[in-house]
From TrEMBL, chains A, B, C, D:
Protein name from the UniProt record: Glycosyl hydrolase family 4 C-terminal domain-containing protein
PANTHER family (alphabetical): 6-PHOSPHO-BETA-GLUCOSIDASE, 6-PHOSPHO-BETA-GLUCOSIDASE-RELATED
Record Gene3D superfamilies: Lactate dehydrogenase/glycoside hydrolase, family 4, C-terminal, NAD(P)-binding Rossmann-like Domain
Binding site for Mn(2+): C172, H202
Length: 466, 466, 466, 466
């Protein structure tokens, strides 16, 4: 870190990169950045060039002397890095379309993080993360890894618990969005509120206190079905059953809609699917529009349109995090980190998403204490499922994948669930080397994705052959 | 116990009573019974008289001098009892029909033990069990309670953990049926096999070893979808996915079909529902037939037809249990008892259903050790749900009932699940005094069970008024 | 809290009260105090009047309008209190002399917090605290209790876990003293260091990081045997074995000397004992001197001599704590609070002394994670002993007291330990109503404290009779 | 196991071998033994020949055709073994003399199992056991290991948890002796009593029930200080404090005397030490006498004198265990085995000594449930100490050894404890290769065992040089 900080962003061609640049620029007075490396893969080169040019224009518009490098050579980029951020999506948005459409074609939720789709996202992402960690161990053994590649919690668990990289923090924008929006709902300011979160990534609850220490969670529950109540843009706002929430006296996260109102969420997803407008397909269009904007050589700032994506504020959270570590800020953030007992109902070495103090030593979780039975049961099921997913992702064990599928509350159990699983394996063949033998076997058995959109994406990828 | 054992059977008018009598007669040489009291409620008096007369004929046909008492006075019966068995069904089979049909009328599984129906069976049964324990504390403070009122695990947890009656053992026929039938499947004899069970009532797994200590679980998994492979008569035999079972290397119980093949089980139930042949409705007919048989004054033994019911062997298990306690037999049985660490993933004071040694001191569980992630996640979810159900049953907290419903894997989450919950509350009004205030409120809101069969049963009960 | 804060100090006649006044005066600009009530018992009235007069002079010397009340009527004082601090010592310093001398007269450590003496201090203090909580429940149900009556951890556990008063924080000066003194030892400033403490009151460890997040614990271990290395004044500085500390890579607290170098500490105590200069006897003299100083009507500030006592900075910690709660400061403090999983090797509802964030909601512990085997074993033993002590203190169960004694690492096990126990019971008869029956029995058996100094104190107390 | 069982006994030259032979002869009708290999090291050859000849004479006196092999070649012996028993003592009785005398020369308990001596016995034994397991993995991968090399619990933990050999059972004679002798004390027969043990090797408690299921523990406590009450011959019978035992309502094991009456036990040991009659020195004489007896060519049975040793019934327990496994006996035995949750206060993968069911699948522990605070605290301390000892034994980490020493309740903490530790390291140099570097350093610092008897034994061993 002599002469300033070196930041490396893997998946640098992402449409979210301008938000990351904006965040770093804003914090530059306290963050002496020397260079930023945007890394991508050959398939992402075009996007990398477009967004990289915008990034350069953004920094040129500032008085700061920061060099921006665009590269397809990850190892060159990682050399002596101080902070590495990971925001890549293996298989790009097409993989997400497949993740969502194949389950929906069988009448089941795809859901790209915790649903069937999320399981496959983990299967594709974790091996790549393993390769990144192997490189980091060699090239930048002191670097912090700030992960926001999804499913962020499981990827972070793989990194810390399985690959042994302790200096890793997993981010998510969901808690941040709740803390940004909720105060206004009850005509308060954020500075006067205490937020305490606990749970897993995309599966956490929070409670809120005012500056006199009074629990005002119930007051916020009353407004949870209001518009703009703190749900990320990507989640359909089915109405929460208030009696359930009052009974728990906890604010669920937006993703809990999939678990508390599975039926409504499924119906909404099926309706989008029927119109060819799954969330992934919508995003592909949004992304196209964004990149058109980014090409504008006069643009030297993050366009407002970016905030409409579900992933807004992820990058800003990454900047907050880098800032807190570098300057030993001792601030409250909600991150995925090692449990250490903060949630006694889960193992101390599990990764959880909890209120933490962020400082030079990284994230230290605030102990939450025993969960009530309802939340405990859910959490323990979800964590066990995550463990099966991660083990399957690392070992390529099909049986373990089937176990994870069976446990997933968003997947209907039975023969059709197995059919969905098998189609997804075949569909993502080129990104799942660890499962290669099983996929060959499935193909021999004649497994073929039935959804025509997915089928066509696969055919395109395979140069016309399916 | 001077001059012989006094046994009291609450729900003595049950069609299962002849099996219980047969079991006691068979064991009489080692079980010096003095008297047997069959207790029932006024609504059950007719059945009590029929089955009681049969019981008397059965004992008259033996050389043994045992007195049989039929009574509606529970307190008189309990005085100085040595063993109390509980096999009652609050609301009789009509309540079960309601439990099954209302959820199915909304396209959801009713399932009379762990499904929506099972939740209401717990709500109805636990308060009655509380009253029985209050009586026992006063009238027979040293008696053993052998419970097989369902949901047996939850009722046993309420009795031991909440009502503080330690001398209680919860029974179920599912493990017994597996151990009876599986050996033949692989051409073995039961005496040469080691069975080890662990889990919760209607949610346990087992593994099997041969007499050389070799694990032969996989061999049995291969035959699990065979006919007569050990599933109780009341469960539709949807095919288990073998790859899942091989991965876990555990034999699931028959009820796992509802969790591993929910979709198939639901479709089967919906088909039965459409024909007016839900399991409960079938059973009402079977019971009618049985009681016709029982009336035959020449009948002095258990008729073979009884074995067709799902609950066969429950009563025999009760006899084995009484025998083991009275004679300090130190035998292996699978019962619901206090965990004590046998399943480290659940609290030591939870009730679990595990392989135990039965002797004069009651049941001592064999420690199973850590469960794999998949089974652990399921168990922890199910136990947390059971805790919510039991708490709701005791306190009458509607919010807690809603939490339990939301967690139940057999209930679709969302507004329609709440509708099912509310209809069930209204439908079972007369058996749920603890929820009286909430039920009044629901009725004011216009909640009415929509299923016509259920509606008619309620109307009959209410003398024509719904 | 309308019109300002009401603070009540029970044990207001303590020699530490001037430090408390100084702390409150210093923070007055952010702490709008309306009135301070100093409460004591009739035996303490003289001291209360002396120190109360000094307190009044101290406030008179400020521009602040705060009323000081001196009273023997605890209930009048507690009415509508906002903060209650407890710093009383049941039986005054004479009781401590007995606590220390009786064990030493048998060649064993007395040690007024965790040793045999500490056990009796808990027995005397916990019932009084129970009475205070009963009053508070009635008179000031919203008040915060800031406890620094020793043994602070056990008293806090009794208050929170057994008496159900959740708004309680237990304080100790040991962590504060370490954080004050250690930075200078390695030529650093406190603001550039991260302190993380975990363990139990008078039995905790800490680790230290610099502002780059590097662990510098080992650097501090190297200096632990330096003079002024952070040990409170009341603890003899036997040399820590550095190889042990390097192996643990943790900084022990000063009290660990009793456990890591028991032999040296015992020899030192025996030498003091032989000279009639046990710590308690020394303190009695120091206190006498302090009260002489306090009588000086020209004195209107805390005299420097007070800092020589082992308990210095306790009161200042109390002020920091009140300040943090009232103004929602979100600062790091080391306090006794509910574990909540912060130390996974202890029960979530145990009281532990750990790094916490102090704010309007009270103390929230930072999760520490798994302890190494060595520290875990010690902590679990000590917490189990504390549980036995607290249970004995509440129930008056002699067997439980004997169990606690047997477990205490500072007490030699065997017949002589029981002799010490029995003498202490008899010696403290008038402060141990819960053990009255057993003490009568012991007296009948002829148990008499053999130490002449103790015997004389008892005789004085009993008006000449022993 | 074709054509009969092959049993290998490592440490076959032990004076206990005749008991083992007697036990196997007695059980031969159900145990078709083909051959028994007695293995020893060159230093033990003479004893091996003497005891081996006796063993041969014992079998010759039976009608059974079993071959006895005497060998110094462990690998030849292990080839295709079915059962391996380990009863060796690294360094023979001279090492035990050193273990006991060096601590006593500093006024501390040596105690050859859990005291300072036991720690060094673990340090010497565990590496040898590692080598045996390495051989077994190659030469008899299906064999059962029946360990009674002390400290049996720690050695078993090393074998199962660290070396990964699951088919291992650790034995001890202490529970067996209690169950043999106690019934007579209350004029009962063993068959009418239920014994339940739980804890660690040489640190367990038990409770007893009669055949009506009534807890009769208190009745037995009343007799615990009687002669012949069930304490092994090697333990001085200091009187247990009955009030403590009544409070716990558990029967302690004989070794608890060291923890509950440390002072008395120390005084007794110091008196023996002063006379040159430590237990080890006494045993050396007993052993000499036994071997003289064994030389008698007319002797063809186990001489009665052997039962006077503390280790009597160890070998018989091994025979019971082999018998139970081979014939799938499903009997109750108290053995060291994997916890699996039987003691929830310890980790599921720890080795504990508990009531278990022994059958073809090995030992399955009966779940005991939560321990009371007193026993829990002790157990957790002792297990943590064991973990430190085992880790030090495997890694040769001196700091970890120092941690274990500091935690050991039988060792006084402080500088003198470290002196004892260091002398023991130097004294056992030739059996502690894993600590070689540290021992060299200690010798350079001039550490020399001061006890003259120990010093001479070392000098003898080293050919005159110390």
């Amino acid at each position: 870190m002599k002469n300033g900080i070196k930041i490396v962003t893997i998946g640098g061609g992402s449409s979210y990169t301008p938000e990351l640049m904006e965040g770093l620029i804003k914090r530059y007075p306290e963050l002496p950045i020397r260079e930023i490396w945007l890394v991508d893969i050959p398939e992402g080169e075009e996007k990398l060039n477009i967004v990289g040019a915008l990034a350069k224009r953004m920094w040129s518009a500032t008085p700061y002397d920061v060099r921006i490098y665009l590269t397809l050579d990850r190892r060159e980029a990682l050399k002596d890095a101080d902070f590495v951020t990971t925001q890549f999506r293996v298989g790009l948005l097409d993989a997400r379309i497949i993740d969502e459409r194949i389950p929906l074609s069988h009448g089941m939720l795809g859901q790209e993080t915790n649903g069937a789709g999320g399981i496959f996202k983990a299967f594709r992402t974790i091996p790549v993360m393993k390769a990144i960690i192997d490189d980091m161990r060699e090239l930048c053994p002191e670097a912090w890894l700030i992960n926001f590649a999804n499913p962020s919690g499981m990827v972070t668990e793989a990194v810390i618990k399985h690959f042994g990289w302790k200096k890793c923090i997993g981010l998510c924008n969901v808690p941040e969005i709740a803390m940004m929006r909720e105060p206004a709902v009850i005509a308060q300011e954020r500075k006067d509120m205490h937020y305490r979160f606990a749970g897993l990534n995309h599966f956490h609850w929070h409670k809120v206190f005012d500056s006199n220490g009074m629990d005002i969670t119930r007051e916020l529950i009353a407004h949870i079905n209001d518009k703009d109540g703190g749900t990320p843009a990507n989640i359909y706002q089915a109405e929460f059953p208030l009696e359930l929430l009052y009974s728990t006296n906890l604010l669920p996260c937006g993703y809990h809609r999939y678990y508390y109102m599975k039926k409504e969420m499924l119906q909404h997803s099926l309706a989008e699917f029927a119109k060819g407008e799954t969330r992934a397909e919508q995003m592909k269009n949004v992304e196209k529009t964004l990149f058109e904007l980014y090409k504008d050589e006069n643009l030297a700032s993050k366009p407002a349109e970016l905030e409409k994506r579900g992933g807004a504020y992820y990058s800003d959270a990454a900047c907050t995090c880098i800032h807190a570590i570098h300057n030993d800020k001792k601030i409250h953030m909600v991150v995925s980190t090692v449990n250490k007992g903060a949630l006694p109902c889960l193992a101390p070495d599990s990764i959880v998403e909890v209120s933490s103090i962020l400082s030079a030593t990284g994230a230290e979780p605030l102990a939450w204490g025993e969960m009530r039975a309802h939340e405990k049961g859910w959490l323990q099921l979800m964590k066990a499922m995550e463990e099966c997913i991660i083990e399957a992702a690392i070992t390529g064990d099909y049986g373990m994948a089937l176990e994870a599928f069976t446990m997933n509350p968003l997947v209907d159990n039975g023969a059709e669930a197995k059919a969905v699983l098998d189609e997804l394996f075949v569909a993502h063949e080129n990104h799942l080397p660890q499962f290669a033998a099983k996929i060959r076997e499935l193909k021999k058995q004649g497994v073929v994705p039935k959804d025509p959109v997915a089928a066509e994406l696969i055919a395109q990828r395979n140069g016309g052959k399916i």
